[in-house]
């Protein structure tokens, strides 16, 4: 097993930087379905460009490299303790090489361990089997989509769908509802794994297990096959679309599994995974520890480039999108001119700020003058170059709704004019945008390479005690593009999509599986 650590390092790097072919095919198919020139098509264009860049740069597809979770099947007599040690070393090495973001945080103190190791991280699960090779699967599932996982306890009353009973039709309603409630916040279009039965723990366990199935397999259980097909066909009618911008594709995959339950409990557990569905697997030789075969990689290379040309041509024809360039400091007047749907290109300074910073700013002064400035909800992957300067390795947006309790007050307190994030914000922020003259810009979640390329120089960093993802980075950007989805006139695309998708959800109220 001399080569095992090196094999695990390769598996981690490949999983973080190179999306598997079954996932690429699902994204390519979605791209074909979207009408050229729409926001959904433009977003998918950015997503596919980002996938290619990550591959070429051997850098994280998304800055949130999640909670590394390994599922391993081993022949008897293989030393699991040694394997665990090797995996941990490989995780730490991949973190110091900026292939993983330091993501392991003490839940009470907030201290970041810096190397992705700590109580409960990474997750490593073993099972023995009678084959003569080791099967290692890895999933890097980020926090935004993890937060959209949901567990139903049947019977339940569901928004838009009414009663969900303890039967196949009740399960169908839960799954449809799970897609609706995720909206764009888990970086749709997503993949879902569903676990029927079990208890609260084993139900979720099964749901996550389903995310290790190939996106293209066919469920051998007839009832579940029908259910999966039904969900794939109908969830896409909800109109949530890529990043919740509206559009034809909301769901890229649905895999359902079932286990027994005890009489009193009936759980339906759903694990939501963003489009940046980073899971891979390898077969490993139990003597040398070398990789024998890669999993999920059957078939031809997926060529996004050809579609890119077609989409770009169609885009030019539909040039009615208003394009605005902004550079901080921004005036209130400039903000008041912006409307939902405008595409904004930013040059100059922006400052990152996410959960720890928002909490901090409520009762502290800002480390820099934020008047007229732009806040980017982002926890980047950073590295130092040979001269010791920070460089941005991956920097897509994080889910903005977590800052809802703070955002409006902070904008007013410091005079911030624009916030960039993803998934949109709520009523309180919308009100503050109107009162104060602010705007919310939606960037494409997961497009971490695409945005990192716009980041020309890191001018400084404050509050490093919060750890790399949570610190406040001051970054000079060029050509950073995002869409206005909430403006200072009370308009919110997120609110509109949420209410129209709720209306569409209610079309699925009548029983289907009797
Ligand atoms: O933590 C992050 O960078 C992003 C997170 O995965 C999110 O989707 O909000
Ligand atoms: S930012 Fe989006 S793509 Fe990245 S991990 Fe979070 S949910 Fe996934």
Automatic annotation (TrEMBL):
Pfam families: Fumerase, Fumerase_C
GO biological process, one term: generation of precursor metabolites and energy
Keywords: 4Fe-4S, Iron, Iron-sulfur, Lyase, Metal-binding
Reaction equation(s) it catalyzes: (S)-malate = fumarate + H2O
InterPro entries associated with the record: Fe-S_hydro-lyase_TtdA-typ_cat, Fe-S_hydro-lyase_TtdB-typ_cat, Fe-S_hydroAse_TtdB_cat_sf, Fe_dep_fumarate_hydratase
EC number: 4.2.1.2
Protein name according to UniProt: Fumarate hydratase class I
Lineage, uppermost ranks: Bacteria, Bacillati, Bacillota, Bacilli, Bacillales
């Amino acid at each position: 097993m001399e080569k095992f650590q090196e094999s695990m390092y390769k598996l981690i790097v490949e999983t973080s930087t190179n999306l598997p072919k079954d996932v690429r095919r699902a994204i390519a198919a979605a791209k074909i379905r979207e009408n050229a020139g729409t926001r959904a098509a433009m977003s998918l264009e950015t997503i596919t460009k980002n996938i290619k860049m990550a591959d070429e740069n051997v850098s994280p597809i998304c800055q949130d490299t999640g909670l590394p979770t390994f599922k391993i099947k081993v022949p008897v007599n293989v030393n699991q303790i040694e394997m665990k040690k090797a995996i941990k070393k490989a995780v730490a090495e991949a973190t110091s090489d900026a292939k993983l973001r330091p993501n392991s945080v003490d839940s009470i103190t907030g201290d970041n361990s810096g190397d992705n190791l700590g109580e409960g991280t990474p997750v490593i699960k073993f099972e023995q089997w009678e084959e003569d090779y080791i099967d290692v699967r890895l999933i890097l599932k980020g926090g935004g989509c993890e937060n959209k996982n949901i567990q139903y306890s049947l019977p339940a009353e569901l928004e838009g769908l009414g009663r969900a009973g303890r039967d196949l039709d009740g399960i169908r309603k839960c799954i449809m509802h799970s897609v609706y409630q995720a909206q764009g916040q888990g970086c749709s279009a997503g993949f879902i794994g569903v676990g029927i039965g079990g208890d609260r723990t084993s139900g979720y366990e099964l749901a996550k297990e389903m995310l290790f199935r190939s996106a293209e397999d066919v469920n051998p259980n007839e009832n579940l096959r029908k259910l999966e097909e039904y969900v794939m066909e109908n969830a896409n009618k909800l109109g949530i679309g890529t990043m919740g911008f509206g559009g034809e594709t909301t769901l890229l995959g649905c895999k359902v599994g079932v286990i027994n339950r005890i009489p009193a409990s009936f759980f339906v557990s759903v694990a939501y995974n963003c489009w940046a569905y980073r899971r891979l697997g390898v077969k490993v030789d139990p003597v040398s520890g070398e990789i024998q075969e890669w999993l999920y990689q059957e078939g031809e290379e997926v060529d996004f480039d050809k579609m890119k040309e077609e989409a770009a041509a169609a885009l030019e024809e539909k040039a009615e999108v208003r394009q605005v360039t902004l550079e901080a400091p921004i005036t209130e007047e400039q903000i008041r001119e912006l409307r939902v749907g405008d595409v904004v290109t930013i040059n100059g300074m922006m400052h990152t700020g996410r959960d720890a910073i928002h909490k901090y700013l409520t009762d502290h002064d800002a480390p820099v003058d934020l008047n007229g400035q732009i806040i980017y909800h982002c926890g980047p992957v950073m590295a130092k170059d040979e001269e010791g300067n920070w460089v941005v390795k991956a920097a897509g947006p994080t889910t903005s709704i977590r800052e809802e309790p703070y955002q409006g007050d902070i904008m007013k307190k410091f005079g911030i004019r624009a916030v960039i994030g993803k998934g949109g914000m709520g009523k309180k922020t919308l009100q503050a945008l109107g009162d104060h003259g602010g705007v919310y810009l939606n960037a494409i979640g997961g497009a971490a390479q695409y945005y990192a390329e716009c980041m020309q120089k890191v001018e400084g960093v404050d509050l490093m005690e919060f750890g790399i993802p949570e610190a406040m980075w001051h970054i000079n950007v060029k050509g950073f593009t995002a869409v206005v989805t909430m403006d200072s006139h009370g308009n919110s695309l997120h609110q509109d999509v949420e209410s129209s998708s709720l209306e569409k959800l209610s079309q699925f109220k009548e029983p289907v599986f009797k």
